[in-house]
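Incident log, structure service

09:12 report received: a user says their structure output differs between two submissions of the same chain.
09:20 pulled the input from the user's history:
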Amino acid sequence: MNTQEKFVITVSRELGSGGHTVARKLAEKLGVRLIDKELIHELSEKFNLTPSTIERLKGEKKQWMSEFIRRVAPAPSPAAFIASNSVYGKEFNPNVTTDDIFLAETEILRQFAQEESCVIAGRSGFFVLKGHPQKVDIFITAPMEKRIERVMRKQNLTRELAEEIIGKVDKQRENYIKRYAETSRYDVRNYDLALNMDGLTEDQAVDIILAFLNKK
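09:34 re-ran on a clean worker, output below:
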């Protein structure tokens, strides 16, 4: 791949694999922008939603307002969602669906890819930027035990809670990819390079990716 021209590298990863750190270090080595939290921030502003709400929405297969109302007791009055100073008005938008979020992500990602070289961590980049002339798609995985230990350490959680979170996030991300890309995020045919982090440090993984880019 010619890194002298505009390019995009997408890094899909499993929670706890170290893939986000790999993406960040790779972006630093290449001297380009990392797209992840910036994207979520733009989505938050566009839909007036918190990052955690957006991440949850992405894994759901239906509109979320009915789910929210079902879980909240007592349910807030309709006026609570309208009042500008209401916590509900700030965080929840009854008109936003997962389709809206996917379309917004697609729009923002394509804009970034058009304007500059970048590394995209997650965000379904391998799919929404399909056909980009200078794109390399990477998948980062790791043994479950290593993922659990990393999540426990990073978030200061018990093993039981770490396992629960990993299972939930895996399911949400797979649902999201299957809905919009009509494929599995675990299908290695979606990627140019798949790396198992077993026995690798993040820096070693970055070196492998850079060597692959130089040969591609």
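09:41 both user submissions now match this output. Likely a transient worker issue. Closing.
09:42 reviewer note: The beta strands are 8-13, 33-35, 118-121, 135-141, 193-196. Residues 159-181 form the longest helix (23 residues).
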